[in-house]
Amino acid sequence: MIDLSHNDSDALYVGVDIGGTKVIVQIVDRNGRVVSRHKTTTSSDLNSIAEIVNECVSDSKVNKDKIAGYGFGVPAVTDIDKGIVIEAPALQWHSLNFVEQMQALLMKTVTVENDVNCAALGERWLGSAKSADDFVFIAIGTGVGAAIVTGGKLFYGNRFMAGEIGYLLSEEDWQENKRYTFKNFGALEEKISGRALSSHRIRPEMIFKQYKENNGEGFDIFTQYLKTLSITIANLSSLLNPQKIILGGGVSEALSEVIDHLRDQVAKMSPVPVIIECSTLGENAGAYGAAAFLINKLDAQ
């Protein structure tokens, strides 16, 4: 996935993960050693994003001449060859020439990749998937998405849209007069995203508390949540036969406490064996992966 034979051992790489609620800026060397890390509120304005990145680099006190480039992970369908963000509903971007515009602002090499793909690259480089050539990374945050790695390489599909599992449907979701588009959240996202958990009458913290106590409305809500997530994981396992399915994103911290339950449920739902784990890099996986993608691009030049 990532070749570490690049001849500039002193170079530094800035990985930027732009999420629905936050931006993480991380400066790393070729070995993934973190030189600096900053987290702040997200923005959809390119000038503001560039300012955030520049401020983080300045605050880190690193020599800017050592920075080889900036890798961005964005919650979007991205054309990685042309550097274009095709659709980013959470940021309200459409057909945005991201790389060209951001390079003009930062004056260095810029790359852009889907944020979930970046998280998978991060886990493949330094996290839960270091030993796996075939795995699926499921990100559960503001939305829901997946990255598919097969034979050690990301699978993109026909138009860079592979892994958009937030739009998976069950029979009950289909309505003749409803059309799902990238401008709206998908049916699965409306059930298992962090946004979905926050839409209930009681707070997510109380939902988790009541589930652990085996009582109240929260128990019923999270029981259904886990059932839907288990079905999703089982279907992905049956379809793709990955070695691992890794759960990441903001909600995955809560899922670490019920990971054994998920494993038991999935084992009943599909005869295809799979290892289910939570991300070891947590919220920083995307920033690591954005830097990894940048390094790969620079090495290929």
Automatic annotation (TrEMBL):
Source domain of life: Bacteria
Record GO terms (molecular function): kinase activity
Signal sequence coordinates: none
Entry keywords, A to Z: Kinase, Transferase
InterPro entries (alphabetical): ATPase_NBD, ROK
Listed Gene3D superfamilies: 3.30.420.40
Family designation: Belongs to the ROK (NagC/XylR) family.
Protein's name according to its UniProt entry: Glucokinase
